[in-house]
């Protein structure tokens, strides 16, 4: 089943964008600051009504009978999530099971434990969220989304606060989620992560769709040059690529890649 938008417009932010994401795949949405990535993701999450166009799930206009049903289908991690109460990590993660409150208690407990383990939060489970570092907090919020086990996982810059090891581990989790048949859609600034870990890449610029396709097509150096205004070069082998950005003066380049 696919999730996408058809001719979507949000005044001043997105214009006439159409894309289709597929379950079982990791889709990355890339683009410079202000390109409309977060706006697109929040529309896919059904949290923002477009001015024109439609959001489609399985080929039909996306409609849910209740907020609970939407939460069962769509797990969403915003770019700057807020935590309203100073609860413990374990309680925060367990909130991810609210959409499945009627599921057997054992099933909910397993989902919560899996999410806590997957995000390396065992040692922090009893800590109040106010005492966590930025990256620990980000992992706890991601665990809450994973605990829901929704049909679609939508995450806006999920790696932004994570160290290298936790970022690599989270990308492995996203891959596993896709292999379980879920749809995974990530806003990513790190183009090497998108190149190495996404199956499909959507590039936005100034509210418009520039290109979509396999990473090597959508993130080709001429596209990086025209969209990000950088002279860039891919190094290494497929799946382990690093992006070298040419400096303004011919001194040195720099490259960083995350490899499993
Ligand atoms: N609430 C809002 N009201 C008006 N304009 C907004 C609002 N939120 C975002 N915008 C504008 O819409 C455009 C797209 O914003 P969006 O947050 O979707 O971009 P983005 O691609 O996610 O950017 P970034 O990489 O900086 O997070 C930007 O020009 C932004 O300034």
TrEMBL record:
Domain ABC transporter: 3-231
Keyword vocabulary terms for this entry: ATP-binding, Nucleotide-binding, Translocase, Transport
PROSITE patterns documented for this protein: ABC_TRANSPORTER_1, ABC_TRANSPORTER_2
Gene Ontology MF, one: ATP binding
Keyword Membrane: no
Database matches in Pfam families: ABC_tran
Function: Part of the ABC transporter complex HmuTUV involved in hemin import. Responsible for energy coupling to the transport system.
Protein name: ABC transporter ATP-binding protein
Native species: Novosphingobium organovorum
High-level lineage: Bacteria, Pseudomonadati, Pseudomonadota, Alphaproteobacteria, Sphingomonadales
